[in-house]
Structures are given as structure tokens and as C-alpha cells.
Amino acid sequence: MTRVGAVVEHFSRLLGEGSRVDVVGGVELWKWVRPEFVSFSTVGLCDSPVTAVFPQELVCSVKAGQEGAADYLLRLSLQMVLDGSRGFVAGDLVANGGQVLLTGTLIEGVLLSAHPFMPDHFNVIAAEPGGQPVEILTLVPVTGGEVALANSESVDSLMDVLEKKNPDLADIERACSTQDPLSVEELRAAVAAAVAADYDLGWRRVEITANILGQWEESVVVGFDAAGDAYTLPESRGVVRALALMRPAMATPEVGAWFTATVVVDRLQDLFTIDFEYDADPVWVDRPYDVNFIDDEVSFPRPYSQIPRWHPVRENFTEQEWATTLANQ
Fold it and tell me: Which domain of life does the protein's organism represent (predicted)?
């Protein structure tokens, strides 16, 4: 198998279904799709005349719906490599001079590192006999505050903060990990503001049902006009983003984290409510895997007796087995 063939096989096995989308400077760009995230990668950079410690490929992984950002960041980084004929090394930080890289976000740079949510063996493709291994470097989008921390202290300091705060690094719309998180009340206000911004006054009533579980986010929006007729409306990313930040902020050891939030805005009644469902099995269009539910319960544990009977934890673990699992985390 050629080295490029080994790269395609490696990515196909770990990043999901792939397709070639472009060629830049003789290097192929591929898109890979998993249920949890979407990735763009180079294929063939390892065979380019580039100075590097090891032959390398680049990857950028983001949440579904943010593919354009990954494509853009990959192309930008690849062009830097090709223009300079020099590859990256782990720990490199590419910043945009204090300017936002992705409009509408806080992202001002990328950190080159091991993939933040793939197993360690993803980061290296073993060498063929007589050859060299291929290093996989992941472009992790970082905010302006995170760039500032790395510049004022060190990249290691930034890595320590990211490990401690554990932000969703696949989400280009995330908050900055070096700043204090917004309170639940501030996030509630952000939901109201997003509804006001995204749905004009012609909609008498807006109902948003959002299912959130880690990186899995789905929402259904229904608007009612003055006659009371219902229409399906586009998703509000501002609403979903605020709710996704609200979920861990509201989690408690007694009840864990909620699965579904229902937002209702009724302009005639001057009504704004958010209700949260901690127990009912959400109705998903693209349902998370059992392991995603289990991992989420590890992150936001509740007493075994409070875990709903439909939940994969109850289906796969006895109470003692689950207690042992939590103790080993």
C-alpha cells in the first residue's frame, strides 16, 4: 500500500465516510463524516516537498453544520505550509493578529496538536518497512483570549486551561475558556435575545424544542402567525448555543443534566418561558449512540435510582456496576 493509500485507509477507519472535495497545490482535500463531528483533512501532504520532522497530514474537526469553518481553516493552514515549504509541529499556534478568523465567532487562531477527542493511535500512521511514520496534526480553533494566554504565558499554559475547562473544541461558536462562564440568568437572557433577533414580530408565538446531549444538538422551531396558523421555522443557532451552555451550568448531583429544553415566546401574552425535561426520552431525528448517553451520564452523574429506565445506563449496568464505573473515572 502506498503512503497516501495508508492515509486514506486510516482516516476512513477513524473519521468516518469520506469523499474528495478539492485539490490544492497537488494535495487532496477530503471531507469525513461521523455522527459526532465532521472533519476536513489533507491527503497527500505527506508526499509533498515540505520540510518537517515527519511527513504529515492536517485535520480540522467541527460540529455538523460548521463544515465551512473547517474547510476554510484547513485551506488557510495548508497554504501556509505550501507557501513556506515547511510543515507544522505540535504546539504551533497560528494567530490572526488579534482579528477574528471566523465571522460571528471568537475564533482568532488555530493550535496544532493531537486530536482532542480521538484515541492516541489516530495521531500517527505507522511506517511501512523502510519508511517513515506519518504524523497527523489537528487544527484546533482557539479564541482570542486563548491566543492571548498562550502568547503571555505559554502554549502549555493554554493546554492546561483547555484540559481543566474541557470546552467543546469542535464548536467554533463556543465561549472562551479563559473567561468566566455566563450565569444561567445571563444565558436565559441570551436565549430571549436570540429569539427576538431571529424571529420577527410577525410571529405571534414561537415554540422551540431543543434536544442536547454533549456534542449532539437538535432543535425544532414552530412559529404561529396572527391567525394562529403554525409554520416550521429555521433553527436559531443563538438559542441552541445558549441552551447548550446552560445545560452543564444547571446540572446537579441530585438530578443530573436535562435532555430537552422547550422555549416558548408569546408576544401577545408577553410570555417567555423555558422548561426543562430531565427524564423523558427525547425524540431525535439523528439519535445519539448508547455510548454517548453513557458518557454524558458520567459527566453529569445522578443517583442510579434517578436515571430513567429507558436510559442505556439502566439497560447495560446494574447499580453496583455503575457505581464501580463512576469510581474508576
Answer: Bacteria
